[in-house]
Amino acid sequence: MADTGEATAAADGTPRRDFLNLVTASFVGLGVGAIAWPFVNSMQPARDVLALASTDAELGAIQAGQAVTVMWRGKPVFIRHRTAKDIEEARAVPMSDLKDPATDQSRVQKDQWLVMIGICTHLGCIPLGQKPTDNKGQYDGWFCPCHGSAYDTSGRIRVGPAPRNLDIPPYAFTSDTKIRIG
Amino acid sequence: MASGLHNSDIPNPVLRWIDQRMPVFTMMQKEYGSFPTPRNFNYFWNFGALAMVNLMIMIATGIFLAMHYTPHTSMAFDSVERIMRDVNFGWLLRYVHANGASMFFIVVYIHIWRGLYYGSYKAPRELLWILGVVIFLLMMATAFMGYVLPWGQMSFWGATVITNLFSAFPVVGEWIVQLLWGGFSVDNPTLNRFFALHYLLPFVIVGVVFLHVVALHITGSNNPLGVEPKGPQDTLPFHPYYTAKDSFGLVIYFIVFAVLVFFAPNYLGHPDNYIPADPLVTPAHIVPEWYFLPFYAILRAVPDKLGGVLLMFGSIAVLFVLPWLDGSPVRSMRFRPIARIAFLLWTVAFFVLLWCGGKPAEEPYVTISRFATAYYFAYFLVILPLLARLEKPLPLPESIARAVLGGGPLPAGAAAKPMEKA
User: Fold this and answer.
1) Which of A40, A41, B70, B175 could crosslink B88 through cysteines, CB 3.0-4.6 Å?
2) Do the chains contact at A46 and B87, CB–CB below 8 Å?
3) Is B417 on the interface with A (CB under 8 A)?
4) pLDDT, tens digit (0-9, with 9 covering 90-100), for B66-116
5) What angle in degrees, to the nearest 10, is found between the helix axes of A16-42 and B47-66?
6) Is residue A173 helix, strand or coil?
7) Looking at the complex, does the CB of residue A36 fall below 8 Å from at least one CB of chain B?
8) Catalytic annotation on A147?
9) Which residues have CB under 8 Å from B270's CB, separation 6+?
10) What does the alpha-carbon distance between residue B110 and residue B381 come to, in Å, rounded to a whole number?
């Protein structure tokens, strides 16, 4: 066995042992990687979790000025039936007053229906403002009690530590009074 | 050893810095690099390394399965089915884990057989052997509790039968059984504690395996001749000789494992375990997993409850005292013509018991089990002690190198001449 080392060294001077070590290590690396993938992937959402990735919501019973919260992917989604006053307030704000500038039109599909993920973009608390008795903050929208972020009637951040407006989930109107989120 | 930095000769400066403060690289080099290993290993010496790899596979797949499993009687079965259908690669994790248990027992049975055939249990390796038997017992407990977790019919009734074994003991029996159950039957508290222990015991096994390896590296390995290495001409450095040989064995092992997992994943299982547990209906024919069948056959061979239980536990307990039952100084059966035949017959008895354990408890299987059980014990308790006195062993080779290489004595150190990169 010992005679196969230096004697069969490749033309560039690489000994056969180095070559064998590299090939072995590469194959072990490939194998471990291939085996690791199913383990890592098993931690991603399972198919039954993905099957719950869309939620239908019925809007017909929600009166102007009321709001409901529905669950989508384990998160609250705020649906507010805005009054004419809410919409007017939201559209009157100059872009220069906004921390995360976005027009109200860009945040809704139908003017009276505001659909947002109800999670403060600061650190994930759920802002108040869905119930009539809640503190809606000084901009008539939502107020996060954790660290004092206030959102306006378009769900845009106006004051406080949150960096972004409340996120808009993907959704579509399946009829005049129904939406499918996700 | 004096305190202060370790005098390291690792060339890489970063690794040397670590090695001076914590000489793990020096230790690895000593124990797995240059470790002098008998030069005449055959492929039976692969199975310790294979068992180590198998243990790691079981722990890895087990941890990931536990992320999806629910140890509750009303949800356990469904959570296992969810792993099979919904969890990404859940089918793979579960089939590797379930068949991994079978592979583990195949590997360990061959490993134990190797020890019995080549006399690896004899002085000075008695403690090494005893630690191995402890690992085997822990494995059996772990495998049994793991089989309960899917909460199918075989899980439930297997758990019921095996825990009831302890009721055979006088006075404390009932108390022990209630302690195991956490109630008055196998139920949710039982499932919960079995899950907790099934997660714990593999790590205990890792600890005892570590001690097993420590003990091994003190005495050094036995070898097919059973003759201790007398010098460097009888040994080879562990790396690359046995890392390479073990790697080859590992590839074969993975092929067998893959055939089971991908082509016959339920071959070694029992279809009744795909029926959810029902405490009101016992399946017509309940059997443990195949690897427990020999011991199950011993249990059933005895027409007395306590006697059967004692004999079953005794069939493993006898291994603990084996180093003192077999007084022959000759290790390898190659040089023990009579003991060799007696041991091969013992192997046949083991397989006969395995076969009978899977059959219904009726004739002729009961009678066959009784003969096989009698021989199983007779080999350890009568034949080996007698042969130690009566048998005339064949002449042992002068040394490993002499036997392996033939011819005259080698120049000292020739075989251990380091290769250009070793």
Assistant:
1) A41
2) yes
3) yes
4) 999 999 999 999 999 999 999 999 999 999 999 999 999 999 999 999 999
5) 30
6) strand
7) no
8) yes
9) B154, B287, B289
10) 22
